[in-house]
Design a protein that fits this description.
CATH superfamily: Cobalamin adenosyltransferase-like
Structural class: mainly alpha
Helix content: 55-70%
Shape: globular
Strand content: under 5%
Radius of gyration: 18 Å
Strand order of the largest sheet: 1-2
Number of helices: 6
Order of helices and strands: EEHHHHHH
CATH class: Mainly Alpha
Distance between the termini: 55 Å
Number of domains: 1
CATH topology: Hypothetical Protein Ta1238, Chain: A
């Protein structure tokens, strides 16, 4: 099997259902950003020592394949692996488990006092961008409300994990840092 097909040389790609679409379309941008998020989480997981969190991140990555597949399909009923409400509930359970273990969760912090936390904060920001792309797509085309909720909740999970794995907190005292200058 060759990795190159030459079918995209003129700026189009095929969706999962065979529909041809411009590579710079909002749909491709949406699932492409989800793909970037998936890779980022895979990278971040290599810095996480906590086995339970690593396992959960892998499960999240698999759900992101479902998310991208759903976004890469226009024709209803072709792609069977959709994000489900129970996936959202699972993410909420993660937040509910770890949030009580975080000090200063309601404060602004300088992110990234450990490699794991820094990498997860990058993943969180990519997730937020994916959410923005998906919401823009939803204004013009059909996108599942469940998928939108899943991506929104996922950014909260990534924030929660990142905060949990911070080795030390630099809580923002805006007056102090503003008056200190650079």
């Amino acid at each position: 099997m060759k990795i190159y097909t030459k079918t995209g040389d003129k700026g189009q790609t095929s969706l999962y259902d065979g529909t041809r679409i411009d590579k710079d379309s909002l749909r491709v941008e949406s699932y492409g950003t989800v793909d970037e998020l998936n890779s980022s989480i895979g990278f971040a997981s290599k810095f996480v020592d906590d086995e339970k969190i690593r396992e959960q991140l892998l499960k999240i990555q698999i759900r992101l394949f479902f998310t991208a597949g759903e976004l890469a399909t226009v024709e209803e009923g072709i792609y069977k692996y959709k994000v489900r409400e129970e996936d959202i509930t699972a993410l909420e359970n993660i937040i509910d488990e770890y949030l009580p273990k975080i000090s200063g969760a309601d404060k602004f912090i300088v992110p990234g006092s450990s490699k794991a936390a820094a990498a997860l904060h990058v993943s969180r920001t990519i997730c937020r961008r994916a959410e923005r792309r998906i919401l823009t797509l939803k204004k013009n085309e059909e996108v599942s409300d469940t998928l939108v909720k899943f991506v929104n909740r996922l950014s909260d999970v990534l924030y929660t994990y990142a905060r949990y794995l911070e080795s030390e907190l630099t809580i923002m005292d805006f007056d102090k840092y503003y008056n200190e200058g650079l």
